[in-house]
Write a structure and sequence with these properties.
It is a single chain. Helix content is about 65%, strand content about 5%. The protein has helices at about 5-10, 10-30, 35-75, 75-80, 95-115, 120-140, 170-185, 190-210, 245-280, and strands at about 150, 165, 215-220, 225, 235-240. The strands form two sheets. The chain has a three-stranded antiparallel β-sheet, with no helix packed on it. Strands 1-2 form a two-stranded antiparallel ribbon. The structure holds zinc ion. This is DUF92 domain-containing protein.
Amino acid sequence: MSPHHSLTRLPLRIALGGSLAALIGLVAYRLRALDRGGALAAAGTGTLVFAAGGLSWSTSMIGFFAAASALTRLGGARKRALAVLGREASRPRTATQVLANGGVAAALAVLHLLRPGDRDYTLPYLAALAAASADTWATELGVLSPSPPRSLRTGRPVPPGTSGAVSLLGSLAMIGGATFVALLAPRSLPRWPVVTAGSLGAILDSLLGATLQARYHCSHCQCILETPQHDCPGRARRVSGLPGMTNDLVNALATLAAALFALLLATGQESRRRSASAGS
Ligand SMILES: [Zn+2]
């Protein structure tokens, strides 16, 4: 499809996508999967994605979101009992969290619409989504692991849900989350670059979580936190990581890395195909 063609039908695509995305945002808000801001951010992202890639792009986004919301609810009682690191389990997702997971995908939708260099951005889009899915599955399922995860930094067992900690269950869930998005990809596309780029993004997420992500310590309740705010009169101080390097920013960087990696894979394939056809 030429950019001209897609742009002439843009108002129709925005109207259709906007209605679909608003409906899904409303349902997610009613189900308490998203808060008000989260629902608005999701509706905006969904509209862009539909305008750019139609149903084939939207299917993978909706599938990712539905599976992630379902997994968040899984083992709710156990997650509440853990109440890891000041994060409340199964709380509706905010706009910041939605954009951390879907912002890069939304930006790629805009690129796909404008088509600089007449490039197809489907593969990087799917890779960004696969990385977000891999990280969400790893977190939501990994937290239910029977054995505690180990920190990538120290190798020692740490509380479930700690950023930058890995378990066998979490690692399998990570690959599962990336594969799930790859299976929802259009049939014309190879699946392995989506799984590979998505998994690499999620691995980078864990590495950044173990190293550069900010961690706080509260001397009042003697707990390690990912955000300074928590239900306690004590004040938490940053003990490691970079200021402003939140879990959300780490998620966004991981999806960006996955998209760039998929772009590299696609470019490599393209040039191999070109040299093969030039040689024949
Ligand atoms: Zn405290």
